[in-house]
Amino acid sequence: MSADAQPADPVSAAVAGAFRDERAIVLATLIRQVGDFQLAEDAVQDAFEAAVTVWQRDGVPANPGAWITTAARRRAIDRLRRNRSVADRAERLAELTRLDAQHAEPSMDDESTIVDDRLRLVFTCCHPALDMPARVALTLRALGGMTTGEIARAFLVAEPTMGKRIVRAKRKIADARIPYRVPADEELPDRLRGVLRVVYLIFNEGYAATEGDRLVREELCDEAIRLGELLCRLMPDDAEVWGLLALMALHDARRAARVDPSGRYVALDAQDRSLWDQDRIREGLAKLERAVRLRRPGEYQLQAAITALQIQAPDAEATDWAQIAELYGALGRLNPSPVVELNRAVAVGLAAGPAAGLELLEPLLTDPALERYQPLYAAHAELLSRGGDAEGAARAYERAIALTANAVERAELERRLGALH
Amino acid sequence: MSQYMLLVYEEEVDPAEQAEREQVTPMLVELHRSLREAGLLVGVQRLHSTESATSVRVRDGETEITDGPFAVTKEVLAGYYVLECADLDEALQHAARLPMAPSATIEVRPIMPPGEWLNTARRAGVDLPDEAVDYLA
């Protein structure tokens, strides 16, 4: 049933397909109906397990999603009858029994109910009262199609550890009564930013994967993009939702070129551009355009615009660094951060010469937040070297080398240090 | 509706700064009045400073009494609220609106309903009559 299972026969394939396509939708609706995350999830799990045997015996139903919905609801009724600790148990049971007596599956046809339920689930899974690793795990488990084992492998933790993390999060949702609803208007912008942060973190975890089972970890990129697409469907009027999807698509387009055949990281200006996925790039640019048309600038749109400029230029030389520097400036005004300021200094250095870049970079050298930030010293070295100060550049490279824990990065910095003299 | 306890943790400060903090009292009166009128305020108390705290531990049958709070921390429990709320979001909103929120940390904890307490004990194998629920909380 998991994404990495190998379906051997048509029934297993149908169950796996229903798991991938319908599980999250059925779960979202059932959580609302039973009012308990864990119970709903157990019931959905029961339904999929039942499907394996029943479909084998009676054949695959015409509408697998509707079959799973009905089966999960009946399992939920059974579980609710046995479980006395659920709040409002009697009302829940009455409602479920009433739904069960109806012939059709209204929720399967009612697109807006499905959208509402999934949106509620997004905000519950990404609730700020849960700690970040729990939000990420719960989002992948409940909204994505990943099993606990897959999430554990993707985040390089033992499966029981990940299982405990998810169970604890679900228990907190129940005990603290984390609501299952879309936040009120005044809270919505903040909470939505939190949701986007979870999705982008999932993407980055996959994108920056340098160790562990890389294939599983790259699955996180696909999963994050699917979540991004889901959010675009659910909230098509939010510019940042489109901005994030654009950003992820533009990064993802270069996934194949980021790592060489021996598994080593390849920097942007050394990448083989013929390996870039042009369809993905076009897709990313289209999403960015859609975001910009909404006329509500935000950090993801700015980052996507910067990435778009880097990608669209034929090479690093011909890149519009002045424009990129300006975008970093806008990003820094929106969301001040020394790392953004460093990126701006590098872009200015490339647009207007090393002296201008150094002028912006130098104040950062005394910023305690960047004291152990290797890229600061690598960038400092680059600017000094291009300005003709080989001695200063050597000192900065040595500092950068001392701060790196990554063997590939170290080799690259040592190569540049050696090329100075 | 569920009940939540809002535990207010504050740094203990010198008398001059404390006098400054007392200035929020009229706002508290107003807040408590409106919460009570809305039927949301189950309880609120302020505690004396931890200088007046005494901790009791019984180990191996010996009662040990020490002067001071159970742990020495920078921020200490200064008081609490018990509020009726629809869900955690509502409780978090109340916490953020407390006049002392800018200088305090407010820990929000769901209160276990007596029925759930009874069930938890029963699941652990404790034999209890139904009416025990009236005495648990």
Give a description of the structure.
The complex is a heterodimer of chains A (421) and B (137). Chain A is mainly α and 421 residues long. Helix content of chain A is 70%, strand content 0%. Chain A contains 20 helices and no strands. With 137 residues, chain B is of the alpha+beta class. In chain B, a hairpin with a 2-residue loop joins strand 3 and strand 4. The mean pLDDT of chain B is 94. The two termini of chain B are 17 Å apart.
Order of helices and strands of chain B: EHHEEEEHEHH
**Number of helical regions of chain A:** 20
- For the biggest β-sheet of chain B, the strand order reads 2-5-1-6
* Relative strand content of chain B: 25-35%
- The total count of strands of chain A amounts to 0
The biggest beta sheet of chain B is recorded as: 4 strands, antiparallel
Distance between the termini of chain B: 17 Å
The main β sheet of chain A shows up as: none
Question: Radius of gyration of chain B over alpha carbons?
Answer: 18 Å
**What class, by secondary structure content of chain B?**
alpha+beta
Helical content of chain B (DSSP H or I, runs of 4+): 25-40%
Total strands of chain B: the figure is 6
Radius of gyration of chain A, rounded?
25 Å
Whole-number mean pLDDT of chain B: 94
Share of helical residues of chain A: 55-70%
Question: Structural class given helices, strands, pairing of chain A?
Answer: mainly alpha
> Low-confidence parts of chain B, pLDDT < 50 over ≥5 residues?
none
Instruction: Kindly report the oligomeric state of this protein.
Output: heterodimer
Shape of chain A: elongated
The helix tally of chain B amounts to 5
Largest interface: A-B, 11 and 11 residues
